[in-house]
Amino acid sequence: MTRSSTSPHPALVLFDLDGTLVDSVYQHVLAWKQALDEEGIPLAVWRIHRKIGMSGGLFTHILLRETGLDITPERVDRLRRAHARAYQAQAASVRPLPGAIELLQWLSEQKIPWAIATSGRMETAAHNLDALGVDPARVPVVTRDQVRHAKPDPDLFVTAAERLRVDIRDALVLGDSIWDMLAAQRARALGVGLLSGGYGEDELARAGAFRVYEDPADLLRHIDEVAARS
């Protein structure tokens, strides 16, 4: 499918999950902090936050590289498992972001296909999907487990578009991090940023965001600004 100047809506919408549809970024930050502490790796919380949104494997490799410690598959696996345990212990506090459920409902009512593409694995994404009322048996959900490379590589978004059988170039990609926007650019999709993950408007715009909104509710209020494609 190609871009159409007369189409009133994007052909599809691809969502990041953490910080975009659910208010979970800081739970992930604290979970990574706990995992790193257990491994004896001292790292400031703000440094961890700056990496949230990229793949867990790349995240741990970069953090370990910054600390000058040895990067071994065993250590990376321990960190991943410790993070998953710590996050699951906090999962009950995770809620949908304002307007998230309503935005998904609006897209469904408009018959605009949508999918979720997250750098998290299903072990941490499952609760978030439940909170949104999203059934992976009905809606395409692409997780880190299912692709070779996660964000900032484009694989997650490309795979989600393929499952909907729509050209990725006709997609809106909604995300809260610079890693989402970089992945959208590399996929040749149009990126729209949200501030609900803690990144600033200028950061998201420099990473390629076409528009930036506060959260899903703010985007839904201004949906006419992004629904038309040129």
Structure description:
Helix content is 46%, strand content 11%. α6 links the parallel β2 (114-117) and β3 (141-142). It has a six-stranded parallel beta sheet with strand order 3-2-1-4-5-6, sandwiched between helices. α1 (25-38) packs across α4. Residues 1-7 have low confidence and may be disordered. With 230 residues, it is of the alpha/beta class. The protein has eleven helices and six strands.
Helix/strand layout:
Elements lengths: L11 E4 L9 H14 L6 H5 L6 H12 L5 H18 L9 H10 L4 E4 L4 H11 L8 E2 L12 H10 L6 E5 L2 H10 L2 E5 L6 H6 L2 E5 L2 H6 L2 H4 L3
Parallel strand pairs: 1-2, 1-4, 2-3, 4-5, 5-6
Helix pairs in contact: 1-4
Keywords:
230 residues; alpha/beta; 6-stranded parallel sheet; 11 helices
Give a quick precis of the structure.
The protein is of the alpha/beta class and 230 residues long. The protein has helices at 25-38, 45-49, 56-67, 73-90, 100-109, 122-132, 155-164, 178-187, 201-206, 216-221, 224-227; strands at 12-15, 114-117, 141-142, 171-175, 190-194, 209-213.
